[in-house]
Amino acid sequence: MKIGIIGRKGGFEGSIHNLLSLTIEGICEKLIQAGHFLYIEKGTFDNFKFTIGFYEDVNTFNYAISKFTQISENCDIAIVIGGDGTMLDAANRLSGPIDKTIPLIGVNQGRVGFITDIPREFAEEEIKEILDGFSIEDVRSMLRIDFASKVSASGTTCLKSRHALNDIVFNQVGGRVIEFNVFVDEVFAYQTRGDGLIIATPSGSTAYAMSAGGAILPPSAKVIEVIPMLPQTLSYRPMIIGEDCGVTVELVKGKAKVFADGNDVASIESGAIFTVTKSEKVVKFLHHRSFDYFATLRQKLNWHLNPGERT
After folding, report:
1. What is the pTM of this model?
2. Is 264 part of the annotated catalytic residue set?
3. Neighbours of 29 (CB within 10 A)
């Protein structure tokens, strides 16, 4: 099997960096010993250098240093070692139509790990079992954002499109409240003043959306969540709409930035319009057969503890 290897790009130093390096090397050694060919992402290789001697002990024909495009085109599967941010970056780069995207396995070496779900200490054992077929496939929907440069009788002119697994965030800049209109399937929903708007997938419901008071949604839910950020009128509440609905936002007053999965994609001013819809792209995850979404929530959010037991 041809397997992509992707690790966290920096951010850790000292013992944590060395631990992550050891984790990646240990996984690579086991995979090569099992006869798999590895495509190691170039940024991962450059970041860790693998100075502990792993590459001195293996046949150099068992791996290649690769770009994301080579991993996408050649691999049967990719293993991502890091935190949710590392997985988000890899997922966006490797996403595609459902029949053309490779599955991703996530090994958690970060802080939370909602989408990098395999604990580091069990990584080698659980990856082996997943590759042996003891796995659960999990297809996640994505969002697409399209910007319009103008609106006229002939329609809109699209500037650029971006995709996001978690969320599209529309946020004020400079500490000034913005005013904007929201439409659902081209029908006017409301006008409000506030800090902005979060439009999230079920995958993103445990990210920024949760911090802003949104509902937690199971990944299989066929919905999109729309959450006003600090609206001036408190009666504005999060909405859950069907995943096939389109959400259009018109900035009436102020300046704002738009982010896709935390990446700055546009700076906009009054009159700007953008629409968020379900993307034609998806992300495929492979989980160990023991994976349980609600068990993950209990563990990550401390639902298994009574208030007096929490630290």
Report:
1. 0.89
2. no
3. 14
Looking at residues 283-295, what average pLDDT do you find? 96
Write down the pLDDT at residue 153.
Answer: 44
CA angle 182, 183, 187 (to 5 degrees): 145
Report how far apart the first and last C-alpha atoms of the chain are (Å, whole number).
44
What is the average per-residue pLDDT within 287-294? 95
Instruction: Return the residue matching tokens 């791996």.
Output: 63
Q: Is the confidence at residue 55, as pLDDT, over 60?
A: no
Token pair 């966006």 is found at 92
C-alpha span between 88 and 266 (Å, rounded): 19
- Please report how the helices 123-131 and 14-33 are oriented relative to each other, as an axis angle in degrees rounded to 10: 30
3-state secondary structure at position 296: helix
Query: What are the counts of helices (DSSP H) followed by strands (DSSP E) for the chain?
Result: 7, 18
Of 84, 167, 195, 261, the catalytic one is: 84
3-state secondary structure of 273: strand
* DSSP calls for 187-252: EEEEEEEESEEEEE-TGGGGTHHHHTTPPP--TT--EEEEEEES-SSTT---EEEETT--EEEEEE
**CA–CA separation, 254 and 54 (whole Å):** 54
User: 142-280, superfamily in CATH?
Assistant: Probable inorganic polyphosphate/atp-NAD kinase; domain 2 (2.60.200.30)
pLDDT reported for residue 125 = 96
**With 60 as the cut, is the pLDDT of residue 51 above it?**
no
CATH superfamily of domain region 2-133: Probable inorganic polyphosphate/atp-NAD kinase; domain 1 (3.40.50.10330)
Range 106-125 average pLDDT: 90
Residues of the chain with CATH 3.40.50.10330: 2-133
**What is the average pLDDT value for the chain, to the nearest integer?**
89
Name the pLDDT band for 183 (thresholds 50, 70, 90): very high
